[in-house]
Amino acid sequence: MKKSVKLFIALVLSLLLTTNAWSQTSTAGDNVSLEVMNICLMETNSATVSLTLSCITPGEALTPATNSDLFVRISSIVPANTSRDLTARISTGAVPYGTILKLVSASCTTTNSGGNLGTALSTPITLSAIDQNLITGIGTCYTGTGNNDGYQMTYTWEPDYNSTNYGLIESLSTTNILVVFTISNIY
Amino acid sequence: MNILTKIESQISLILLFYSLSTMVTAQNNNSVQTSLSLKISAIALIDFSTDGNQMITYSYSTIKPNNVEQIITPAIGDKTWLNYSSIVANGLTNYITVYISSGSLPADVSLNLLIGADVGAGAGKKGITKGQITLSAFPQVIITNIGSCYTGRGIHKGHKLYYKWTNTESYDYSLNYDNGKAIAVTYTISSTE
Predict the structure, then answer these.
(1) pLDDT at residue B21 above 80?
(2) ipTM more than 0.90?
(3) To pair with A29 at 20 to 30 A between CA atoms, which of A132, B22, B32, B107?
């Protein structure tokens, strides 16, 4: 039993030593070398986005539904002369037949942000299973961490007014689809 | 034995920290998944649109939006258009019925209704008309196979209704109207569910 205890201690020591050895390699010599990591972190305010298509006036089409509750927050550090894009796609599920789901990002909120926050594209994208740009030219920046900090995302869900496609619409009890936001690698 | 367990747990903690610190260094959290909840309501809405200043009164209630009532006179002619909006579930359709919901006609007066085909405004799967019927106090189906569609709202949209009276001279419209015995017809849109 004592032998195994010693063995464990040795194992721990070796682990710690490895870590030390690593840090030594990056700071060896008389000069202090500073490294800024290439960072890209992302999260949302976890807002629940619910959209319902309905109509209250006889003779009229379904009224488009919009939701702007979701904010995407990022931290980004990029090497000189490079940038990232923020894209979105549907990863699970599909937009119901006869309807179109659009997404557009606002420019980043200014209260708690800083740096090169990129340019939000003004034309909404029609969401599909393929990544499409929402924001381009994101450099080194941070958006802030508050609930309403970051890029505000506006979803618009509307019927396809094409006569054949409108006829494909079916009433639908609540269904979930998943949308993935991605920050591209630097390029 | 106890010491060993203690040391083992300490080691696993250290290992955990070690692996965590490695993850942070990677900084690889560059995508995030969000959930979106979508719903489409089943819809069956119906209403009239009338052409010009006709002697037509009708009721439309948001409480019973699948039901409209119209008082009609021999002068009404073909000044009424039926507008509707419909969203159906897979395998179902909506249909429209009509009946004389108020008043009664003299025995020698008959009231026919000609239902025009949808004029092509709006979009989607509009219904198929029955052509012509003789109105009675019993509901009769006049438009079937309505899928998900909308006719547009207003005159010259949806289906044109043409009322044809026979022997109108037997029917003293003004007297009946004053006595609250006007003829009214009710249109209802329902699901085949």
Answers:
(1) no
(2) no
(3) B22
